[in-house]
Amino acid sequence: MSEHARTWLITGSTIGSALAARYATSASVRKVIYTWHSREPRFDSPKIQTMQLDLTCEDAVANALGNLEQLDGVINAMGFLHDNIHKPEKAISRFEPDALLKSIELNALPTALLAKHCRQRLKASSSGVFAAISAKVGSIEDNRLGGWYSYRASKAALNMLLKTLAIEWRIGLPNTCVAALHPGTVSSPLSEPFTGRHHSPVTPAESASNLKDLIDQLTPDKTGRFWSWDGTELPW
Ligand SMILES: NC(=O)c1ccc[n+]([C@@H]2O[C@H](COP(=O)([O-])OP(=O)(O)OC[C@H]3O[C@@H](n4cnc5c(N)ncnc54)[C@H](OP(=O)(O)O)[C@@H]3O)[C@@H](O)[C@H]2O)c1
Hints:
Blueprint: E1 6-11, H1 14-24, E2 29-36, E3 48-52, H2 58-66, E4 73-76, H3 97-107, H4 109-122, E5 128-133, H5 149-172, E6 176-182, H6 204-216, E7 225-228, E8 233-234
Parallel strand pairs: 1-2, 1-4, 2-3, 4-5, 5-6, 6-7
Antiparallel strand pairs: 7-8
The chain binds NADP nicotinamide-adenine-dinucleotide phosphate.
NADP nicotinamide-adenine-dinucleotide phosphate is lined by residues 12-15, 37-39, 54-56, 77-79, 81, 106, 133, 135, 183, 185-186, 188-191.
């Protein structure tokens, strides 16, 4: 990836804010535009510009992105697994229609809206990246355990959106690499109820560092692939 003053748009709470902080420490990064939803994090770096954005609202996304300068990279790190009402369904008997709709709304829709409205902003970049944080459980081929119907299905939908976008942008935005990323297990409110004795989560800062190392290796010829945090490729 060429080393010039680059501008990144990064979204998401725990992993997203850690990514924004990590990118801001890079000499090749001129500016990070970070979007938050309900709680604005505090950043030390003057390179980080923050804005509130509901990534499920197309008008809000269009307005926010329409006013931005050229971007070199977009990382969407927002998402949804559970709340007070919805828990991952272990069996189809526990399936809740609302959980599937909410999961699609928060795990798939925002990336499609970001892609639609940041296309013009990424077009001039000589080496752009458009990435979203997916999850290994969204891989259909890798699904050996089952369960988590709504989350798996919504991440599989996200993956399909990214793969389809990569095919379109091979011609429309040939300098941009489109990628789905699995962050590993990371300490956050999203993972907290599920990181028992079988998983040892990494900190958000470690995760951000791992993901940046991976993203730094993404060149346009690698577009349309699904990567784990350690650089290994995952099956769709
Ligand atoms: N943590 C892990 O171990 C792990 C593993 C695999 C994949 N992932 C994926 O990594 C991504 C980040 O997860 P995380 O662990 O950092 O979880 P997180 O801290 O819960 O971050 C997700 C954030 O999405 C934001 N959000 C919800 N609705 C939104 C909206 N309408 N507009 C904008 N933002 C909205 C929420 O912000 P507010 O709180 O402000 O509403 C929420 O905090 C997710 O896609 C997740 O599926 C995480």
